[in-house]
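Task card 7
Instruction: Convert sequence to structure tokens.
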Amino acid sequence: MTENVLDIFARRKAERAGSAVLVDHAATRPVTWTFEAFHQECLRAADWMAGSGVTAGARTVILVRSPVDFLISVYAAFAVGAVPVLVDPHLPPRAVRRCLADAQPTVFLGDPLAHLARLANGWARSRASVFLLPPDARRRRHHEPKPVTFRPAADDTALIAFTSGSTGTPKGAVYTHSHLSAQLQLLREELGMAPGRVLVSAFLPFVLFGPLLGVTSVLPDMDFSRPRRVDPRKLTAALTSSTAAALLASPVVLTALSAHCAKRGAHLGSLADVYSFGASLPLPVLTRLRRALPPAARLHSIYGATECLPVSSVESRELLSRRPQVLRGQGVCLGRPVSSLTVRVAEVRPGPVAHWADSRLVPPGQIGEITVAGPNVSTRYAGNRRATERTKVHDGARVVHRTGDLGWIDDDGHLWFCGRIDHQIHAAMGHFAAEPIEAALDAVPGVRRCALVGIGPAGCQVPVLCVQPDASHGYGRRHELMVRVLAAAAPLPHGASIALVLFRRRLPVDVRHNSKIDRASLSRWAARALLSRRRSGRLRRHTKPSAHERRDTER
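Output:
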């Protein structure tokens, strides 16, 4: 038998009973929870859940907007031995229904709006038998909660976390209790999350681990489900009022924060560390953010996935030192893999690979598929045998996860990212990765972000570059920007093959982090834009858009 998650929390509570575990800035005045009070609240919620019919092993989907109520609900589920099922509620309704069909939950715990969506969209209709609102008023009853008695085995399922769907159909990564223990150890050792640290978390998945690590998590006033809408003034207020030593956020939040600091001349003097999760941090944002940080502060870009986090980490100074390689189109440096993981680059194979002996490693410096094996790596998906067979490879007693990411390892042991396998451009002259070209062109003055997509059937796709210009480049300056972008692309590997440049005010992104580009949506938009221009006889490398195209671009 192994420890219940609440047992780990109880140890942290004993060490730091009167210290703050959460500071919630969403209310009119910040609300502070101590380790003691929050632990008791979780146990009361667990009593209420058990009394409502939630039993050990019950898969419990949790769709709760409030980060505090979400955390209490998840911890209460752990306490009674239930399995939290975490699905992003902002996925399309059909995708949520597919996720719940895979997870097969018997308990549905959600806000009133989530229950309305459940009824309207038929979520968990055939399986769920217990329907609950968040444990709000009921959990505030003043009674002595019962101690935790559930003791899981190391290989028992602890939780099911669905991927964001930004790289395909969402899949439910199954985490055992041993996976969670390994993940906690890696976060402590590799990211320096020692007990007593005060951090501002604008990255909701990490809030789940805060009480178990013994840190104080400050929650800024923001909608965690829509990080792109963050108000950098409120985020700065949370940072300054708490004198936090660390900030955790996705690139879209750090982009807004760095722009705010540059405009206002703000300085984030208390921060010693900034951690970026969810996607690569563009070099211009990294440079701008460094100016707002103390000289000794560290800015880390973390690479990982729902199935395995963290995998590697790289500090901003090292990233900046490798800027010439990025500008030559060699990809994005991800740093060295964490010590307890085995990260290898294998030859890209289109179908399942049952045994690692059937895989072929590519030579150093050559691009292939990034694979990961280690104690924190999820070994299967819930209710999705095909995805499990496609991405999991047996290597003796352990399971290797195929990430679906393209990359290579340099002579110093650094891992480089070159995009998703599914996002390669399959043109007439051959297939090639888009990310190395995009990372180089993101550094062109006037470009806020760009994405290279292929239009047309595989084998004869037309490479189209979609550019999101910065605020200083209106329609009148876009021809000038197009010339600069094409000039920068010409010397890059496959950069000269870019056939067309399209401008869009904002590139579509994933629903969870608002940072990864939604390439399927962008490809459809680019195809419509090109079809519109072809029909109007204005198909050239760049023209001023029509009013119809401009409305489409502004979406």
